[in-house]
Write a structure and sequence with these properties.
One of its GO terms (biological process) is alpha-amino acid metabolic process. By secondary structure, this protein is α/β, with parallel strands linked by helices. 45% of the residues lie in helices and 12% in strands. The chain contains 19 helices and 11 strands. The protein has helices at 11-15, 22-34, 61-64, 85-97, 115-127, 141-149, 164-174, 190-206, 230-237, 253-256, 289-301, 303-308, 313-319, 325-340, 361-370, 376-388, 401-415, 422-427, 431-451, and strands at 56-58, 69-74, 107-111, 130-136, 153-157, 180-182, 217-220, 242-248, 283-287, 348-353, 395-397. It has a 7-stranded mixed β-sheet, sandwiched between helices. The protein has a 4-stranded parallel β-sheet with strand order 5-4-3-6, with helices on both faces. The chain is globular. The protein starts with 10 loop residues before the first helix and ends with a helix.
Length: 452
C-alpha cells in the first residue's frame, strides 16, 4: 500500500450505509465482528447497525424521572469503540483528497484527551500512517492501552482533562516539522461536517418512531465541540429545537469563564473551540463531575438496585456497558433540560453516548478507593439524588446577543494566540460561514468517489 491511500466511505455512505456496495458492506460487517484491524472497517463508520437502524436507547422513565423521552445515540459500536473515529477519518480523508496528506511522507498528530486520540491511532493503522497522539498524562489507563494497541505513539503533556491547552501548544511545536500533519479536532472543520451531516441526520432518523417524532432539545457536552454541530442540522428540520452545551460545574469556561480540574474525560477543555458554532447554542448547563462518575457506577454495577427502584430488569441490563462518564453527563443534562423546558409525554430530548464502559473500569476503581463505602443503600441514595432530583440549577440562557458576545470574546482569547486572525474569527459570526463549510460535503464526496 506504500504511496497509495486505502480509500473509505463518503460522507453520504457514513450516513446511509445501505448505499455502500453490498459486497463491501457484508465484508465490513463480518470484519467488525472478526478483525477490527482489517481496513474494510472504514466502511463501518456509521451510527447504524446491520439493519440500517440508528443504534440508540430510549431511557426508562423510572431512571430519568421525567415524562419526556430521553433518546441516547450509542457510540460504542463504532470501530475502535467511539464515534470520535468518524471525525478522525473525515479529517484524514479530506487531507488525502486535497493532496495535503501523503502516505509514506506524513506523520499524523492527534491532539486529544482520549477518544479522538484512540480514533486517530486506529484510522492511521487502517490507512497506513504513523500516528503520534498528544494528550494529558492523567487520563484513564485504558485510553493509553488502546492507543498503543493500535500502534499509536504517545506524547504526554502535564496535567489533566482541562489542561488541553498544553496539548495544543505541544501540537503546534511538533507541527513546525513539515512532515507532521495535525488532525486538529478543535480547529479543523471536517469534525463539524461529520457531526452536522452524519450525527445530526442520524439523530433526526432516531426519533421517527419515538414520541411525536420531533426533537425538542439536543444536548451535548463539548470537548472539541464537533458533536454539538449536529444541533445545526437538527434545527434546520425542527426549528423549535433548543441546543444545550454541557460543562463540568468545576470547569465552567463557557458559562462563567471559570477554569478548574474535573473528572469528566473528553469534555470541559477550558476553551471555546474554534469549530463551535455558538450562534446555535441556546443554553449552557453545568453538571457536577462526581455525579457522572457515581451515576456510571450505579448503571454499571447497580443493576439489582435499579430493579429494586422500579426499572424493569430487561431495561436495567440493557443500560450496562453503553456509557462512559461523558455519556452520563449528557443524560443528566438531558434530564435537567427536559425539566427546564417543561417537556411532557411525546416530547423527545436527544443526546449522545460517545463511547462505552470499556475504558472506565479504572475510574470506578478510583471512586471505590476515595469513597468510604458503596453499599446498596448508598447506590439507592445516588439514584434518587443524581437522577430523580436533577434540578434546573446552573442553566444559563445564551440566546441573547450579549451572551453570544461573551462566547465570541472567549473564542478570540483562545485562538488569536494560535495565529488565527480576527477577520477569520469574525467571519464565524455569520450563519453563511457555517453553511458554506457544510456545503463542502458534496465536493468532498465527489473527490472521494473519483479517486476511489
Amino acid at each position: 500500500m506504500e504511496g497509495k491511500i486505502p480509500f473509505g466511505p463518503t460522507y453520504e455512505e457514513m450516513l446511509y450505509p445501505e448505499k455502500i456496495d453490498p459486497e463491501i458492506r457484508q465484508r465490513a460487517l463480518k470484519a467488525l465482528k472478526e478483525d477490527e484491524l482489517d481496513p474494510i472497517n472504514l466502511f463501518n463508520i456509521t451510527w447504524k447497525d446491520e439493519n440500517n437502524q440508528v443504534r440508540k436507547l430510549v431511557l426508562p422513565p423510572e431512571l430519568t424521572g421525567v415524562d419526556a423521552n430521553i433518546v441516547v445515540l450509542l457510540g460504542r459500536y463504532f470501530p475502535s469503540g467511539s464515534h470520535k473515529v468518524g471525525p478522525a477519518y473525515a479529517t484524514l480523508i479530506e487531507g488525502c483528497v486535497d493532496g495535503v496528506i501523503r502516505p509514506g511522507e506524513h506523520t499524523i498528530l492527534g491532539p486529544s484527551t482520549g477518544n479522538f486520540g484512540i480514533g486517530v491511532a486506529y484510522i492511521c493503522r487502517l490507512m497506513g500512517y504513523r500516528a503520534i497522539v498528544i494528550m494529558p498524562d492523567s487520563m484513564s489507563d485504558e485510553r493509553y492501552e488502546r492507543i498503543r494497541k493500535y500502534g499509536g505513539e504517545l506524547d504526554l503533556t502535564p496535567g489533566t482533562e482541562s489542561d488541553v491547552i498544553l496539548t495544543l501548544k505541544r501540537t503546534y511545536e511538533l507541527k513546525k516539522d513539515p512532515k507532521n500533519f495535525a488532525l486538529a479536532q478543535f480547529e479543523l472543520l471536517p469534525n463539524y461536517r461529520f457531526h452536522r451531516y452524519v450525527t445530526g441526520n442520524s439523530a433526526i432518523e432516531a426519533v421517527r418512531d419515538v414520541g411525536n417524532g420531533r426533537i425538542a432539545c439536543f444536548v451535548s457536552a463539548p470537548g472539541s465541540a464537533g458533536t454539538i454541530g449536529a444541533g445545526d442540522e437538527i434545527k434546520k428540520v425542527f426549528p423549535e429545537c433548543k441546543v444545550a452545551a454541557l460543562e463540568p460545574y468545576e470547569c465552567s469556561t463557557l458559562a462563567t469563564g471559570g477554569r478548574g480540574q474535573h473528572r469528566i474525560e473528553g469534555i470541559g477543555d477550558k476553551m471555546c473551540t474554534l469549530i463551535h458554532n455558538v450562534l446555535n447554542t441556546d443554553f449552557v448547563v453545568l453538571i457536577h463531575d462526581d455525579d457522572c462518575v457515581k451515576g456510571l457506577k450505579l448503571i454499571q454495577d447497580g443493576t439489582e438496585v435499579l430493579i429494586k427502584m422500579g426499572v424493569k430488569e430487561e431495561k436495567a441490563l440493557e443500560l450496562k456497558d453503553n456509557f462512559g462518564i461523558s455519556g452520563i453527563c449528557n443524560i443528566l443534562g438531558a434530564i435537567k433540560m427536559a425539566k427546564f423546558l417543561r417537556l411532557g409525554p411525546g416530547d423527545n430530548v436527544v443526546t449522545i453516548a460517545t463511547d462505552g464502559f470499556d475504558r472506565y473500569r479504572s475510574v470506578l476503581d478510583d471512586l471505590e478507593r476515595r469513597t468510604l463505602e458503596i453499599t446498596d443503600f448508598v447506590l439507592e441514595r445516588w439514584y434518587r439524588d443524581i437522577f430523580l432530583r436533577a434540578n434546573e440549577e446552573y442553566i444559563y440562557d445564551f440566546r441573547k446577543p450579549e451572551a453570544k458576545e461573551r462566547l465570541f470574546a472567549q473564542k478570540e482569547q483562545d485562538w488569536l494566540p494560535f495565529g488565527y486572525t480576527k477577520e477569520y474569527l469574525d467571519a464565524m459570526r455569520s450563519p453563511s460561514f457555517w453553511e458554506d463549510e457544510y456545503a463542502k460535503i458534496k465536493e468532498y464526496d465527489e473527490k472521494i468517489r473519483a479517486l476511489r
